[in-house]
Structures are given as C-alpha cells and as structure tokens.
Design brief:
Layout lengths: L5 H10 L34 E6 L6 H12 L3 E3 L30 H14 L1 E8 L4 E9 L5 E5 L7 H6 L3 E7 L3 H14 L5 H24 L3 E3 L1 H9 L6
Parallel strand pairs: 1-5, 1-6, 2-5, 6-7
Antiparallel strand pairs: 3-4
Helix pairs in contact: 5-6
C-alpha cells in the first residue's frame, strides 16, 4: 500500500474540521520529529494570583500598609503572625532571661504559612488560624478568598523567611522589607504593644530595646532573603503599578 505523505494528511485533517481555530491557506508541513503541537489558536493564559510579601522589623508599619492597600485596591491579606506556635509548644526558642523569644523565626510555622499561600494562589480560598497574642495561642480560624487575578498580601514579622520558597514556586510578585528610623519604630511598637496589652509592660520595654539594637541586622537578613528595604510610602507607590486597570 502506498503511504500518504504527512503533509497531505495534515491538510486533510484541517479540511475535515478535526483541528479547531482559523484555517490557514496553506498549512506548513509537519516534521515527524516535532513534539505534539498545541492548537494553532491556543487560548490566552488565564490571569493568575501572585503574592506580595510585606516584611520588616516589628512595629515598622507592615499592618498599616496592608490595610491601606486593601482599602485602595481590595486585595486580600494573609496575616502571617497568625502562624505563631502556641505558647506551650516545646519547640519554642527561649532567651537567656528565661522568656520565649517570639522574635526568632523558630517561634513560627513557616511551612504552614507557605502551604496556606500556595492553597490560596491555587484555589482562591484558604482556611487560616487566628492567633491571640495575649493568650499566646490560636483561638479560631478564618477563611481568606482571592479573585482569579488578585494580588495577595502576606504580611508579618517573619514574612521574609518564606520569600525564597515563594519565588521558587513562581508565586512571588514583590517582596518588601518595610522600615523607618529604628527609634521611631521603637516608640511606635511600644505604644502599640502597650495599648493592645500584648505582654507585661516590663517585658515589652526590654524586648523593645533588644529589637532596636538588633534592627540593622534584621533588615540586612531580610534583604539577603530577597526583600527590598524601603519606606511604606515607597512600597505603596511601587505596588500601585500592579493594580488592575492601572
């Protein structure tokens, strides 16, 4: 039996309507060495969600920035501080003074934070814990939703720790280390923590002084993880360019 040239077979399949899309006047020959081809009129890639990380020292204004961005653009927020370990977790790091070091990344579930963001990007919905800092434990849960093309804000004191993992998975849009003058941050943090009664006043004062001394190192580490150090106002200007319709 005489074999049918491959180019003829391709033309016949186009004529018989097996291939969808507009029909070219003279389809090019197909090489037998080619990989299986996608349809000629492949649909445009679907809009996808991606994550903006808002990291920075404690009290630097991450939460305020996230609120402004949500009010302006409607972007959902995942509060990464809700992934702290419970206060009775034996894996919590302890300072020399005998209190839990809540500013050490080991006091936090980084793996659960990454899993939650991956779920939200993939499916548009995720159930997250709600952490009560004064009680040092999660006391409930909430559901976060995201539209198909929405920016997802992920803010928290340890947010920079998951920047490499998010980038490796292709989930990262931007990462910022929000910062101010460290003494301004010290007073803002102290007033906030006292007003919210997060811990006993003496603990908050001693912790605040320690964090103030450590802040340059914190910023340097977060930059090394891929976060861009800048003021909240600068981050807000950059992110305005990612708003739909901008």
């Amino acid at each position: 039996m005489t074999s049918v040239p491959l180019t003829f077979e391709v033309k016949r399949r186009w004529r018989d309507g097996i291939h969808s899309g507009s029909v070219p006047a003279d389809p090019a020959p197909v090489s037998v060495h080619d990989s299986p081809a996608a349809p000629a009129s492949a649909p445009a890639p679907a809009a996808r969600r991606r994550v903006v990380v808002l990291a920075g020292p404690s009290g630097s204004g991450k939460s305020r920035l996230a609120r402004r961005l949500t009010e302006r653009h409607g972007w959902p927020v995942v509060r990464l501080d809700d992934f702290y370990r419970d206060g009775d977790d034996p894996r919590l790091p302890v300072l020399e003074m005998g209190i839990v070091d809540w500013d050490h990344p080991d006091s936090w579930h980084a793996d659960r934070a990454v899993a939650a963001l991956t779920e939200l990007v993939t499916h548009g919905r995720v159930r997250v814990p709600q952490y009560d800092i004064s009680a040092s434990r999660a006391t409930g849960h909430a559901t976060v939703h995201a539209g198909p093309d929405e920016v997802i804000l992920a803010e928290g004191i340890f947010a920079a720790e998951i920047v490499p993992a998010l980038a490796a998975q292709g989930l990262l849009l931007e990462a910022f280390c929000v910062r101010h003058n460290r003494w301004l941050t010290f007073w803002r943090r102290l007033l906030r923590d006292l007003s919210e009664r997060r811990k006993p006043p003496l603990v908050l004062w001693r912790r605040g002084l320690l964090l103030c001394r450590q802040e340059p190192g914190v910023v340097a580490r977060q930059e090394s993880l891929g976060a861009r150090a800048c003021s909240p106002a600068r981050a807000e200007r950059v992110l305005a360019g990612h708003a739909v319709g901008s």
